[in-house]
Write a structure and sequence with these properties.
Blueprint (H helix, E strand, L loop, with lengths): L3 E7 L5 E8 L5 H5 L4 H10 L2 E5 L2 E7 H19 L6 H10 L16 E3 L2 E3 L4 H12 L2 E5 L6 H14 L5 E6 L15 H19 L2 H10 L2 E5 L11 E5 L7 H8 L7 E6 L13 H9 L5 E5 L9 H25 L1
Parallel strand pairs: 7-11, 7-12, 8-9, 8-10, 10-11
Antiparallel strand pairs: 1-2, 2-4, 3-4, 5-6
Helix pairs in contact: 2-4, 3-4, 5-6, 6-7, 9-10
Length: 340
């Protein structure tokens, strides 16, 4: 493995620092920089550092924290290239999130968890994802809450696929409330599968990304992978299965209790949702909120809470979520002032 050589100079201006990284493999450097140095530009923009490349060296200038974050991100990306992986904009963003000085937990990048499937390893792209993946590996039941784009469902499906293909569970059961309020499917055209498929599409998408197409079709035909609306869970006991309930904020308290009590021997359960996106009728309490209030802190149950900084879709998604949150907070404060 080629080495990265670091040399550092402290500038007279307080808290400013410059550092030079020397990379051993010149062939990998263009991939690290990106077309027209776009990866370097991305790092500069996100961290506020200045980067300059000459030959096989990249110099970094900025505050001590900024330089340390840029150094860690560049080193992590270079190691990915050494392993034969390709890097793109989202992978650069992931490295930056994981080396953010304010990120928790601050795990060394070499110690980050990974979910290993036959299509390759799935690693975290934010500190929140790293903590979530630890919970998935250690707890029999995990609740995951947070905004869209944080990877709640995708990582749960990845863990389920890894456990199925390694023989740790016998099947995967994926479920969602089929319609936001009440699961009334009769008015929709087609048979039952055609009625519920649109609501379950995100689960199909994750499976298609994690399993070869022929294997997915075979496992669904044999029943090793089952995708069903929440109403189909009633009266069942699910043993030796990995069970995921997605969009759980749109369950009622009765539905949630029904689902959680399906758990049988050797079963793992993951419940995901976003408490800011509840589509239930007015004055109907979300089953996800009710379950968290009732069950958080019980031994064997893990709870992961994602923040806007954990959004791993297009960077604009995170800013959109933040803008909506700020407007909601401002409206709430205004209402309180009027009541006061």
């Amino acid at each position: 493995m080629s080495q990265i050589i670091t040399s550092s100079v402290t500038q007279p201006v307080p808290l400013l620092r410059s550092l030079t990284l020397t990379f051993g493999n010149n062939a990998l450097l263009p991939l690290l920089l990106g077309d027209h140095d776009r990866h370097l530009a991305r790092i500069e923009q996100r961290l506020g550092v200045r980067l300059a490349c000459r030959g096989n060296r990249i110099s970094i200038s900025g505050t001590t924290e900024q330089v340390a974050a840029a150094e860690a991100a560049l080193a992590a990306l270079y190691r990915q290239l050494e392993r034969g992986e390709m890097i793109d904009g989202p992978k650069v963003d992931a490295a930056l999130r994981l080396t953010d000085p304010a990120a928790e937990p601050r795990l060394p990048l070499s110690d980050l968890p990974a979910i290993r499937t036959r299509k390759g390893a799935v690693g975290p792209r934010s500190s929140g994802q790293a903590a979530y993946m630890d919970l998935l590996s250690q707890h029999e039941m995990v609740f995951a809450m947070g905004p869209a784009g944080t990877g709640k469902t995708y990582l749960a499906v990845a863990q389920a696929v890894a456990m199925l293909t390694s023989g740790k569970v016998d099947r995967i059961v994926l479920s969602r409330p089929a319609v936001e309020a009440g699961e009334r499917l009769g008015f929709l055209p087609g048979d039952m599968k055609e009625k519920v498929d649109p609501y379950l599409r995100p689960l199909y998408d994750a499976l298609n990304d994690l399993l070869p197409g022929d294997q997915l079709t075979k496992r669904m035909t044999t029943g090793e992978i089952e995708i069903a609306p929440l109403a189909f869970m009633r009266g069942r006991t699910l043993a030796h299965a990995f069970v995921i309930l997605d969009e759980a904020q749109n369950t009622t308290a009765v539905q949630m209790k029904m689902f959680l009590t399906r758990m049988g021997e050797g079963t793992r359960m993951v419940i995901t949702g976003d408490l800011t996106q509840i589509d239930l009728p007015p004055n109907t309490r979300s089953g996800l909120a009710d379950a968290l209030e009732t069950l958080e802190g019980i031994q064997g149950i893990g709870v992961a809470r994602f923040a806007n900084s954990d959004v791993v879709r297009h960077p604009l998604v995170g800013r959109i979520v933040e803008a909506y949150d700020q407007r909601h907070a401002a409206a709430t404060d205004h209402a309180r002032e009027r009541q006061g």
